[in-house]
Write a structure and sequence with these properties.
This protein is α/β, with parallel strands linked by helices and 340 residues long. It has 13 helices and ten strands. It folds into two domains: 221 residues, Rossmann fold; 111 residues, Rossmann fold.
Length: 340
């Protein structure tokens, strides 16, 4: 098979994975939300239903990244994030399943605790339940410095730590996320539609990089639309482009920077702080579709999608997929801030 004729699935098969995630995740219609908003036809890709540790989008990345860790003989996984990081929770769960020690750099200061339960409930509780060792560190704006420092400390103790970046966002993680495109392509075809767009929340960039590269090979007519949730759209776009270039190089496929679209204006006042549009989206998803969205990521992602629909981004007869990245455990740490 000539290089240019290889399918996305064939290209991805060259990269080994562990099988941590329960795949494929469902692709379901959101008929009531479609009716409420007046179109387009809306669907949800249920990455929250990926299984291990309450699921979420990071498990696709960890399938590949932690295979590399085991291949290198690691006995300890090291990562990090803010107190209510969904990524940390999935890293801790994966490490527990694999019988590896887990050390997490927990950043404080990126946002003021929005509730009394923020420091102890939700993902923070699950990290402890899954046996992670937590290291409180100050937020400096450098997402990976404290994680790398922790790796160095553990190496000095004679451990064999493996560095998992903030958000599990590196080139291998992006390759892992391209698997979502393989599933969506097959599921949409079986359901009889071709999506005009896949809309999702974007922050640490690896998820969007994987979606963009995968779609460029398998779904070139589907636009990948990232909703910035970090209130840093320029930084997010630059990171997506950088990771997508690396992933495309590893997959040996061409990549066009113009394929990266990061939509600004829906992050609210700052990262981790829900605003009125976020709360509206969370309420709608819960009451109309029985979906639990979190106030940091998926809630803001749906808020952005709703705003684009109200701006007539798509026709009523088009199909748009919302990628639900997970994060429901964080709801319990934010309950009093949501007014629900």
């Amino acid at each position: 098979m000539a290089a240019e004729q290889k399918s996305l699935e064939t290209r991805l098969a060259a990269f080994p994975r562990l099988g941590l995630a329960t795949l494929p995740t469902p692709l379901e219609p959101m008929r009531r939300l479609t009716e409420h908003l007046g179109g387009p036809r809306l669907w949800v890709k249920r990455e929250d239903a990926s299984g291990l540790g309450f699921g979420g989008n990071k498990l696709r990345k960890l399938d590949y990244v932690l295979h590399a860790a085991l291949s290198e003989g690691a006995d300890t996984i090291v990562s990090g994030g803010v107190v209510q990081s969904n990524s940390q929770r999935q890293v801790a769960a994966a490490a527990a399943r694999l019988g590896l020690s887990c050390h997490l750099a927990v950043y404080h200061g990126r946002l003021a605790p929005p509730t009394q339960d923020y420091e102890t409930s939700g993902n923070a509780f699950l990290n402890r339940l899954f046996g992670a060792q937590l290291h409180d560190v100050p937020w400096t704006g450098d997402r990976n410095a404290a994680i790398r420092s922790l790796v160095g400390e553990l190496e000095a103790q004679g451990r064999k730590p493996y560095f998992v970046p903030y958000g599990v966002s590196n080139a291998l993680g992006a390759i892992g996320y391209a698997t979502a495109i393989c599933e969506i392509e097959a599921q949409a075809a079986l359901l009889g539609f071709a999506p005009s767009a896949i809309v999702h929340c974007t922050g640490s960039a690896g998820t969007q990089a994987g979606l963009v590269v995968g779609a460029s090979v398998a779904m070139p007519n589907t636009r990948i639309v990232g909703i910035d949730i970090d209130a840093e759209p320029a930084r997010v776009q630059a990171d997506v482009i950088a990771l997508a270039r690396e992933a495309a190089h590893l997959l040996d496929v061409p990549f066009n920077d113009a394929a990266v679209e990061v939509v600004a204006g829906h992050a609210g006042p700052a990262y981790g702080i829900p605003h009125a549009a976020t709360i509206e989206a969370i309420r709608l998803a819960g009451r109309i579709e029985a979906l639990a969205l979190d106030p940091v990521y998926s809630g803001k992602g749906l808020a952005g999608l709703i705003a684009l629909i109200r701006q007539s981004r798509w026709r009523r007869d088009e199909d748009v997929i919302f990628l639900h990245t997970g994060g429901a455990p964080a709801l319990f740490a934010y309950q009093s801030a949501l007014g629900i």
